[in-house]
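Quick note —
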Amino acid sequence: MTLVWGIRKTGAAKEKIEHAGYLFMALDKEESQIIIPSIVLAEYLTPIRDDEQRARTAAAIGDRFFVVPFDAKDALLAARLFNDGKTNRQRKKPNVRAVLRADSMIVATAKNHGARVFYTDDNDCRSMASKIMVAKPLPTMPNDLWGYGK
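Predicted structure written out below.
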């Protein structure tokens, strides 16, 4: 959702959109490379109905971010994360297995392609990511508020 909130600026409360914006501003200022697993890109493109618009959007995201594929190495780690995560997720939530599977694939892809920090406001996904890398929520204010930040 962070990609949706930060780029499309829809799908959430105003504060989530602001928090995603703060994250992108901070990462731009640090000249960080932002890794976007291809699974996340697919989720982002889903509501776009026009093929040409979808292709232009994918190309624009590819120009701005480092979009990485899901591969066999990612599948091995995703399977482990999925199995470990089954005991930690609330089974009564709707689509819990599908969400757990997507989260495990996204986290595994990010980790295996060099992500050092994983940002999400999803507590379950952040908990999963924290088992294999640094995982943080979205910032709630700009790093450089009043010029004192990094």
